[in-house]
Amino acid sequence: MTVHGTCDPRFSQVAEEFEANLTLRGEVGASVCVMVGGEVLVDLWGGEAAPGVPWASDTIGHVWSCTKGATALCAHLLAVRGDLDLDAPVIRYWPEYGTRGKGATLVRHLLTHQAGLPTLREPPPPGAFYDWKLMADRLANEEPFWEPGTRHGYHALTFGYLIGEVVRRVSGRSLGTFFREEVAEPLGLEFWMGLPKNQEGRVAPTIPADPPEEPPAFYVKAFTDPASLPALVLAHEGGYMALGESDSRAAHSAEIGAVGAITNARGLAGLYRPLSLGGGDLVTREHLAYMAVTASAGIDAVLLAPTRFSLGFMKATDNRHLPPADSEGALLSATAFGHAGMGGSVGFCDPAARLAFGYTMNKQGAGLGVNPRGQALVDATYRALGYQQVYGGMWYAPGD
């Protein structure tokens, strides 16, 4: 596998691990980007975007739940401008949301996966994820599965409609439009929630994960208990999770704020670059610190494994004490925050290290966190920065 791009000699370990992913760890096509102090120090790509088609500098792909970080950032931009109070009830901005015991739900509960709406009780019609009003109305009229704010459970597919509808109500623009006009275009990012048709030819189709020898607890529960939250999450998605559907033109063009974004490693790292530098022109330093604080943690009511979230972002989680199928988390430093995507893509910033990181690929892994391919690149990045792991776990800055 030929690797292309540039890599600062100080980060040669990242290039070595990237090559190892392609030659030893089953990688098909991928990209990785590391920015430190705002400077691009690693920008690599390699492998195949499709059979017989090399992964190119401008190849893009579906990054699944990495989308949530972009969606959360939109809410934070509105909060910094004084247009959105994250501690206010959702009904201040979305009055119709206050039905069936949801009147006291706070905006922060939507960001921290505490809203109690990780799925719908009844299946939506085919193509529902491409109909924003339908999904927003269904969620507004849904009864929460738990009292909002009392526990957390990953809102894998509903997060984007919940946060996105608040963004739409406050800004007067759709989530994808707001993100494009306020984030992607000002930062010069090739990052879309709602991919233009003229960019379709650049997309590397998703390659589903190989069936795991031992599935995570989430999938075990989903396939053995049809009334469980995992089962409802997988079943009540309007066909979006059917094989190949997420690569359809309808899926790519829709604004799906939980899982629908299209970009590459350069786009993911670029998204987090201003945050790695103290907030840039997006948020204040004070608000950046607020964004990074862990706000919900513990056994996830949906994923059935430990997760940790700040206000819309994943935080470092060490699950290696669990059985192998559930052992994937995200081994970052305590000051880092970002989001992983189904199959292993990941983007995050670490303001203390002035680090922004992005990794994308087309061949998915079977776990629920940052898989060994992405984690190897993260680990090599932190080593290059002089960070250390205590007992092989989380990353700590020199002297911590």
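[next item in queue]
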Amino acid sequence: MTNDLTRLTADALATKLAAGDISSVEATQAHLDRIAAVEGAVHAFLHVASDSALAEAADIDRRRAAGEQLHPLAGVPIAIKDVIVTKGMPTTSGSKILEGWVPPYDATVMTKLRAAGLVSLGKTNMDEFAMGSSTEHSAYGPTHNPWDLERIPGGSGGGSAAAVAAFEAPFALGSDTGGSIRQPAHVTGTVGLKPTYGGVSRYGAIALASSLDQIGPVSRTVLDSALLHDVIGGHDPRDSTSLTDVWPSFAEAVRNADVAGLRIGVIKELQGDGFQPGVMERFREALALLEGAGAIITEVELPSVEHAIAAYYLIMPAEASSNLAKFDSVRFGLRVNPKGGGTVEDVMSATREQGFGAETKRRIILGTYALSAGYYDAYYGSAQKVRTLVQRDFAAAFANADVLVSPTAPTTAFKLGEKTGDPLSMYLNDIATIPANLAGIPGISVPAGLAAEDGLPVGIQFLAPAREDARLYGVAAALEALLEEKWGHTLLSQAPDLSSSEMNATDEGAV
């Protein structure tokens, strides 16, 4: 029974909980048992909150037994990316500089999850301060892809995606600054959505780049993502960038999915050279299915997209350099005292030297340089102009299409250690996801099958105009249904079983 419960979707678990077929304690314990069984191989979690999770679950069961009217998702377990501040649980953002820090408050999304009665299983691994595409830049060791334990789970939110793909949690929260929800979804066979910028509160999310960051759902089905999005979305007065819109039910958009007459624009610049043949094969098959269901497939051009990565890797480090200045050894977090003492500046320097990893230092230095006197206009200012061009290109494209589509990333999951020595190669992995963050529009990655060359998952990405997240859920749900009808199964049902022999072999030769 334990094994069966971890295979259920969040929606299916919620249905069983509401009917009294299972208890929240049973569902939570099943997932904790699964975590204990496979974490030696996957390393998706930085902190597993066993005691508090079971206590939360028991409270939900008590309230349900007493006849209290609960949220439909009450009692369902969830994993939380460690960039999201959690009262009573460590929050490190994958960095040694915050090792052991237990926040005195909750992020807004956590407040909403607790109010809805979801049970927090713990905090998931990530690239330090969300800087990376592979979760290899975590100060606490890499996460492994459940499909192939020698490969990356994507980044920066590889822990959340891997936890969902390995059936350690039915769904999870992630954050997406340049693809950190969608790219891990692509390589792990999961669903990942970046909401419209401002659609979900960022209050309590440790900032990387404030004009780009966005919290969103990670799940195994489009419906589960929509259900979670319905919980966490909405206006928050504590976030100055939060939209005041009244959002529709995203779950209803999934249940009413229909692509007949929908204009789908294929992004010309995000295919062809540099894209793995197996990725493109699954992409073309998905388009054919959508066209067969009545969608109108056209081609659109986004000429500024070729400059998006260059602009992003000036804007994001510049904002990171400003945001990470608060880690000064004085107020909270790590403090390293130099031998023989020293000034506050000496302590600050020693702390940052030991507390920040190499990739974080690289981006802070780059961002500080881009913002420095004499270079601001040439670098940061020029990058913001490119950002404007990207936004204009999207506006023009959406005049001729309801949604846009591309592969989520150029390749399937690469091997651990394969690109850590070549930062540019790593950065290029986000070529298809970064433009949505620059434009502030929503994007979703949906599993499209397995690449023929290596049998690894491939994702297809849909993009919609700002505030049209519901439109994304509709087309994503339609494709999900078409693919599962064609396959006769869900993609993750084909994932390798994480046997004890595989786990032992991985532990002995861990990267």
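[queue empty]
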